[in-house]
Amino acid sequence: MDLKTITDLKGTFTLHNGVQMPYFGLGVYLSEDGEEVANAVNWALQEGYRHIDTASIYKNEAGVGEGIRQSGIDRQDLFVVSKVWNGDQGYESTLKAFEDSLNRLKLDYLDLYLVHWPVEGKYKETWRAMEYLYREKRVRAIGVSNFLQHHLEDLLADAETVPMVNQMEFHPYLVQQDLIDFCNKNTIQYEAWSPLMQGHIFEMDIMKEMARKYNRTIAQIVLRWDLQKGVVTIPKSSKKERIIANADIFDFELAPEDVKLMDGLDRGKRFGPDPDNFDF
Fold first, then answer.
1. Catalytic annotation on 58?
2. CATH number at residue 63
3. Marked catalytic residue, from 23, 49, 58, 113
4. 200 is in an annotated binding site
């Protein structure tokens, strides 16, 4: 990763179709619909964020749309992401779920639409619908979430369009470097969810030491590590001060040996569900 490309909050990585995806965004999982999520989105956009990540299952798309409108930021300057939920997978049902998401957000198009989980027997038909939406220019990029290498290989065997993004649980205890390498080789942008290990990162002595070394918060260290790994990251918060602090990561860089040290913490540990074994 060329660190010169990681410049500021509005900086981007280029997807394989040429679309510029802001490499830092706001996640809104568990942010309550209505005022809570609308405020979080508005605060983030006022701070300079341009990437907002939601999903139909989060049940807060309407509030996300409200926050976007409150911000007054031009739509073309934003990167808005949503995801098709497992119960909506399949060809026709994915097309309907997409329209429902747009209606709740009150937007004309999405910048990125993701298949939320690899539902066995369904994700290929779901992907066919995503490809249709992409061809029709209803969405600027399409991708997947929680797809392991064998899911991706299965999808790629029939796909017309290579996914632009794979959004995965990613943090120092779950690096999955082989999967990152596979995605890089296939020009699939890797993206992190749960970068702060659902709060468990703050318990790690080694992270406390690194925060002292750089005079930064643990969250800032981890989020900077994500970007230096070439991984898009979307930390979630509904607290204004944390939204601002999380983004304050562009005036320092981690030494290569510290990136390597954090890579070495990998223990294959998930805090979220296993993409090979989920029942929802």
1. yes
2. 3.20.20.100
3. 58
4. no
